[in-house]
Write a structure and sequence with these properties.
41% of the residues lie in helices and 22% in strands. It is built from eight helices and 15 strands. The strands form four sheets. A five-stranded parallel beta sheet has the order 4-3-5-6-7, with helices on both faces. A five-stranded antiparallel beta sheet has the order 11-10-9-8-15, with helices on one face. A three-stranded antiparallel beta sheet has the order 12-14-13. A hairpin with a 5-residue loop joins strand 1 and strand 2. The longest helix is centred in the middle third of the chain and has 22 residues. The N terminus is likely disordered.
Length: 241
């Protein structure tokens, strides 16, 4: 299974499995990869946070009962930051637990035990729902008082003044705001913004970032942080509407 990015590049949906049971992590990751997904795993929410900082994740399969921070608390944090959709996977399967999970922002709630086929079908349904919501919303993002209207190809400052961006600057900014608080490599930014056949070099991304910082009036790392030897991280909380 592949999806098309905003810049035309084709990539596998990235699913993060968070469960303290190594057997479940292995079983689900193998099943996802066989069906065309990219899968990463985490044994707890601390490891989950590390993956989310490093990489873009399209959906999280999250266990509820884990040592340390539980899945309910983690779901609340991820949803508050506008993170990826969450599918709960839990031995707690009564109505109260399911309703609580859904009210906290989870897309679906699967009680254990369940088959890998059911998990895969639920993941696909959650990704379809995410994409449909994005289309209906008109693809508007807000961050630190700024508004980015993808459909209209417009960026407005906190006072409502339109800021002129080149196509390249707009494409790079879109990739950043779609994946906030995650370190994105130059290769990912370049491929997502311009497609895999671009003959530009990494330096082209550095130039776009420098121009964006000036236009966003944040010349340093306040809004777009440089992560040495890794890439860039978009700092503000982003809301999609």
């Amino acid at each position: 299974m592949v999806v098309q990015t905003g810049g035309g590049a084709m990539e596998e949906p990235h699913i993060l499995i968070v469960d303290d049971d190594a057997g479940i992590r292995g079983l689900l990751s193998d099943a996802l990869r066989v069906r065309g997904f990219r899968a990463s795993t985490a044994a707890n929410t601390r490891e989950m946070d590390q993956v989310l900082l490093r990489e873009a994740v399209d959906l999280i399969i999250l266990d509820v009962m884990m040592p340390g921070e539980d899945g309910i608390s983690a779901c609340r944090r991820v949803a508050a930051k506008g993170g990826p959709p969450i599918v709960f996977l839990s031995a707690l399967g009564d109505e109260h637990d399911r309703v609580l999970g859904l009210e906290l922002g989870a897309s679906h709630y699967l009680p254990k035990p369940c088959s890998t086929r059911e998990v895969i079908a639920t993941v696909r349904a959650a990704l379809r729902t995410r994409d449909q919501v994005g289309e209906v919303s008109g693809m508007k993002f807000t961050f630190a008082g700024w508004t980015m209207d993808v459909a209209a190809h417009e960026l407005s400052d906190p006072d409502g003044v339109l800021i002129g961006l080149t196509d390249g600057e707009f494409a790079v900014l879109r990739v950043l705001v779609e994946r906030p608080r995650r370190v994105l490599s130059r290769e990912l930014l370049l491929e997502s913004a311009r497609g895999p056949d671009s003959d530009s070099f990494d330096r082209a991304v550095d130039v776009q970032i420098s121009r964006l910082r000036r236009k966003l009036r944040t010349p340093g790392d306040e809004m777009i942080r440089t992560v040495r030897h890794e890439g860039y991280l978009f700092v503000p909380t982003v809301t999609r509407r």
